[in-house]
Request: fold
Amino acid sequence: MPVDDRATKAALDALMIRVGAAGAVAVKAAGLLVQGLGQARTPVLSGTLRRSWHTESVSAPVGVYAVRVGPTMVYARRIELGFKGADSLGRVYDQAPDPYVKPALVEARPRIRALVVTTISKAIRG
Reply:
């Protein structure tokens, strides 16, 4: 039985497009998962830090998918890691860390794998 090279190539091209699109969707969904878990863990005084969380796609080479996830307030890192010493205004702090970003990522990791596997598997099945 002869093989139809054009049909095979077209089927493989379509598969690559579906898997590529699914990869982008899976990574964005993973980022939003981390964002949601992070927002839930964010310490709240006024709510500004919690509201500052964003997930955005990052430009990457073909076949690589990436998102940037996290809070955008300038003091977000101080809350996560703590701060000892004088700031730029000369105020002195001895602030203990209150991690909320890393724990959200750690909590999300097992769910991210399952999310990616499910999304890509559906794309492969067509």
